[in-house]
User: Fold these one by one.
Assistant:
Number 1:
Amino acid sequence: MKSKIAAAALLLLPFTGQYALAEEVAEEKSSFTISAELGMLFKTGNTKSGDIKAGLNIKHEAGRWLNSLAFNALAKKLETEDEFQSTDNKWDILGQSNYSLEEGGKNYLYGSAYYEQDKFSSFQYQTSASFGWGRHWWETETSSFFADIGPGVKYDVIRASDATDTKLAMEEYSETAAIVQAQALYTKQINDFVEFKQYFVAKQALESGKNSIYKSETSLTTKLMESLQFKFSFRVDYDTEVEQGFENTNTETSVTLVYNF
């Protein structure tokens, strides 16, 4: 009996070895990348103000899957008449999953979801979801470019400051629209220390008269240490349809420190 068990164990050994090897390879292909950024500006003297910008980016790669999550927050306070008042207060979160159609290939399927809340915009909040097809158009040692496109849906809750019933206001001023979403990211490693990125996304409403969204972010990152970077970014947000008294275009210029875990 013992000899039969030993023989069976010897026969199974190559398979268990292959399984362990496959498991080891799978572990090697799965990886997390996490970075956090923070920028602060405080002014005293004739005017007193405080600005804080924070961000968190998480990327996970496993086999053909690439998952990413990005969070950004901005808060500004300005002293007026011996008290501080908020002049900007917003945050957003973006999640996306890509599935490569072939091992090491260029084409992929994606699904993404977005949420934004801005206290001083024309909207109480905006959210959208999209899925479709994308492609890595090129990727070299120093640069890369990918773009994807697909159908989706967008839901906006328009701010109603004159409404007394919050629930009624949300129902009365909400807007749902079918969209086509297109986004692209270009990355260029200028040298060993400096990296340039250009991101653009368009959420085009299919129905005339409904709000479409366009966002662009340009950034330049300089490596200070192995895990610490200095980042300069310029962001433009454009909404085609806003309430009276609000601007269609909002811009944001920031300087932050980025730490890579």
Number 2:
Amino acid sequence: MAAVTRYLELQDGLSDLVGRIISWFSLAMIAVLMIEIIARYFLNSPTIWAHETSTMLYGAFCMLAGCYTLRHRGHVRSEVIYGALSERGRAFCDTIIFTVGLFVLAIFFKMAVDFAAESWAVREYSNKSVWQPPVYPIKTVIPIAVGLVLLQNIAELLRAVLTLFRVPFDDPREGEIASDIDPELLPELLDAESRDMVGRSPPPDR
């Protein structure tokens, strides 16, 4: 199953790369907003471009973060039932979810491509401000973001199916620290760890 492992490594690596790149968008948004604050409140000369620029950066950031979030299992899910299931039970649920997601994302991808193509065809511009920036570049981000989530969804579906049918494979994500610990359980986990450390500590010198 070396080919499967290599495929999962490449796909997870792609999602991680996208996540690292778009993390810089947050700094760009902060810079744009700082320029607007200084120009508006200190120089009394507000810009006509900062608001829409920050909005487009934030939109791109949120959309492109989807594949990174999915790769790190960060999307919201109900742990009441899922957490009580066995490994194969969770794999069964994941198989259903990612199979449905595959079809939904494929349809959404087709719609997003058409949506962006129409915007490029008319060279669509924004009418939200006097700046009137082109919006077809940001609309192009939509199919790209959906496509990236679709690719990561395929990798997650493959993981689920192999686990469900107990096909042995080396998951490159195995051993990673889970990022979905229930915050309500975190104090109990820390207390248990503290008690364990106290139990292992040597007795004080007399």
